Amino acid sequence: MKDTGSDFWGGKRCLVTGGYGFGGSHLCQQLLEKGARVYVLDRETPTNSYLVLTGLASSIHYICGDVRDLELLKISLERFEIDTVFHLAAQPVVPISNVHPYEVLSVNVMGTYSVLEAVRNSTCAKNLVFASSGAFYGTTTQHEPISEDSPPLVAANIYTPSKVAGDIAVRCYAKTYGMKAAVCRFINTYGPGNTNFSTIVPTAIANIITDRPFDFGARDDGTSTFDYLNIRDMTRGYLAVAENMDVASGEAFNFGGGYPISVRDLVQLISRLYDGQEREPAFHGPKKATPTFKRLDTNKARRVLGWQTSISLEDGLKETIDWYKRFWTEL
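Now predict its structure.
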């Protein structure tokens, strides 16, 4: 692993697609702190974005556009002499994927191919880091950590195959064209700034803040167990891949927090951390004979990239709760 840091990123020109999103905002923050020049391509600039609420939006260069616009991407890479592209733009809301499957496939798959083609034909862009997902592995029940060479399985949503397609395409481009490109597979990322209230952590906090019933509907029976990754550890994963692209290119890397916990136990922990109360969550999903279980094996990232988690689940949730309390009226 290279000895990297601010010296590596100082002055580098980086494009973050989807930079106003949850993960993109935090990635922009880290790149700015390390001295990089950050360009963001996004369709919109929501006022409740972490990038806006932290005041960082004034420090990035904004390019208004759709990630599927190949000509805009090509022009932007050359005009701004982009060195590294972080491709995060996607339709990430899983329930929406089943309602609007074509739109999700268009953005997540064709958008990724547009980025790949722009980088392949660029005279300046050297590296591409792609935001894949632990959803790549589909619906799993095994308790053993899942390694990167595990095959994708069938899932109950259209979001999953859209990420599988992009994931495979990035690695194929690296091997076919010799591009410096690699894939990050993250699992259930949480932290300050997540406005996707279809995910469990923001939902639990919102229920408490608004004094709604601690009810999580029919999404689950409470037994599903997942790993959770803090957003700052996620950002460090992106940077570690880019900083070690000579050995990372063409590869996929898992990133997870190492704290598998059932959905029921997670929301009860959030309740206790919020105000010490023991709220009993309600789940109305069909009872599972074999609960879903997903935990990613992160040994490859540790061995090849020198990456490891730095934030415990409890500490990360405390910070997240405090952030929502502070910014709730602006969300």
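The chain has a mean pLDDT of 96.
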